[in-house]
């Protein structure tokens, strides 16, 4: 008697479901590029940034008038610079001009950038017209505004009811105001571009959800747009700070540090020391002070804002 054995199907143990990737996505995680990719930029930065900075640092301990061999004088240049009342005044003026630039340009750039990211009628044409100052050099812009604000033949001379005697460069307050105005006129379009790109990257679904909840345009701006622009604001502010600390051409052409030394900021004072008084050691010391100040202030802004903790899910992916 034969017995048939029926094979009982065995149930396989639970298997880990294969993770399906969406169509068009990367099949493997892409890591960071190797160090070799950074070698050309590293060499370029070392030759044209690090090496000159080291030379300036060495020169700040030397006495040199541009001829002959430099002579080591230790801390003499630093002592003279730090005890110079004009240098102390120039530091405060530099900080004042920088703060004015940040305070005026930041809200203006945000509003214009958010507006330019919209779909208003004739927006593209108006944006192109507004961005024209960004195409001009600081020297060209300063020359144009120097002519327009000339106390004898410019706009102030024709509108004495508004500008008084018309000499905007004859008083410290109005001269600093002119410097802040010209810088704002030229560089606000650049920062507007930053905010325009950032505003266009905000997901539209956030605004749709806010409309469903009954949020109006102003609430959407303050509760969605501004928080989403946070990292762009920090980036823009750092650029403004570094630009304000190194402003030179505008002061050279518009005020030449005057009246007296009332608009002599640190970068212009460095130029006077090095290329007018031929005291290159003192000029190098002032330049090093500017580099350290710009670096420290930028690091403080980054740390205080938490910008250094920002991470990207697409890091290393091209």
What does this structure look like?
This protein has 318 residues and is mostly helical. The protein has helices at residues 39-59, 76-82, 85-116, 123-130, 138-148, 155-158, 160-163, 172-200, 204-212, 217-228, 230-245, 249-254, 266-276, 280-305; strands at residues 62-63, 71-72. The protein has one domain (61-309): MetI-like (MetI-like fold, Orthogonal Bundle), CATH 1.10.3720.10. 62% of the residues lie in helices and 1% in strands. A two-stranded antiparallel sheet has the order 1-2. Residues 1-18, 24-28 and 314-318 have low confidence and may be disordered.
Brief write-up:
The chain has a single domain, classed as MetI-like (MetI-like fold), CATH 1.10.3720. The chain is 62% helix and 1% strand. The N and C termini lie far apart (73 Å).
Percent of sequence in beta strands: under 5%
**Radius of gyration over C-alpha positions, nearest whole angstrom:** 29 Å
The helix content is 55-70%
Helix-strand sequence: HEEHHHHHHHHHHHHH
Largest sheet: 2 strands, antiparallel
The low-confidence parts are: 1-18, 24-28, 314-318
Instruction: State the CATH architecture.
Output: Orthogonal Bundle
With strands numbered from the N-terminus, the spatial order across the biggest sheet is 1-2
What is the CATH first-level class name? Mainly Alpha
Question: What class do helices, strands and sheet pairing give?
Answer: mainly alpha
Shape: globular
Mean pLDDT: 86
- End-to-end gap: 73 Å
| Number of spatially distinct domains | 1
Give the CATH H-level superfamily. Answer: MetI-like
Write down the CATH topology: MetI-like fold
Membrane topology: Multi-pass membrane protein
Pfam family, one: BPD_transp_1
Keywords: Cell membrane, Membrane, Transmembrane, Transmembrane helix, Transport
Organism: Streptomyces caeni
């Amino acid at each position: 008697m034969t017995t048939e054995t029926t094979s009982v199907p065995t149930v396989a143990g639970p298997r880990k479901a294969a993770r399906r990737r969406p169509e068009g996505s990367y099949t493997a995680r892409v890591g960071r590029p190797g160090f070799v990719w950074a070698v050309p930029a590293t060499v370029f930065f070392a030759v044209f940034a690090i090496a000159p900075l080291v030379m300036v640092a060495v020169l700040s301990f030397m006495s040199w008038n541009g001829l002959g061999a430099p002579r080591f004088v230790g801390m003499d240049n630093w002592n003279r610079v730090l005890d110079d009342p004009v240098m102390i005044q120039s530091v405060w003026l530099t900080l004042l001009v920088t703060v004015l630039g940040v305070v005026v340009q930041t809200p203006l750039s945000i509003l214009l950038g958010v507006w330019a990211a919209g779909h208003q009628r004739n927006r593209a044409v108006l944006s192109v017209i507004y961005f024209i100052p960004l195409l001009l050099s600081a020297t060209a812009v300063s020359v144009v505004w120097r002519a327009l604000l000339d106390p004898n033949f410019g706009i102030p001379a024709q509108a004495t009811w508004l500008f008084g005697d018309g000499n905007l460069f004859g008083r410290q307050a109005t001269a600093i105001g002119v410097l802040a105005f010209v810088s704002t006129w030229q560089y606000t379009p650049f920062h507007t571009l930053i905010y325009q790109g950032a505003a266009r990257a905000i997901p539209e679904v956030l605004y749709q959800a806010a409309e469903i909840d009954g949020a109006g345009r102003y609430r959407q701006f303050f509760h969605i747009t501004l928080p989403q622009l946070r990292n762009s604001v920090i980036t823009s502010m750092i650029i403004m700070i570094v630009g304000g600390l190194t402003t030179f051409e505008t002061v050279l052409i518009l005020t030449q540090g005057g009246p007296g030394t009332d608009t002599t900021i640190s970068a212009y004072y460095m130029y006077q020391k090095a290329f007018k008084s031929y005291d290159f050691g003192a000029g190098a010391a002032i330049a090093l002070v500017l580099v350290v100040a710009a670096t420290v202030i930028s690091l403080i802004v980054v740390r205080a804002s938490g910008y250094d903790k920002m991470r990207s899910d697409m890091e290393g992916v091209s």
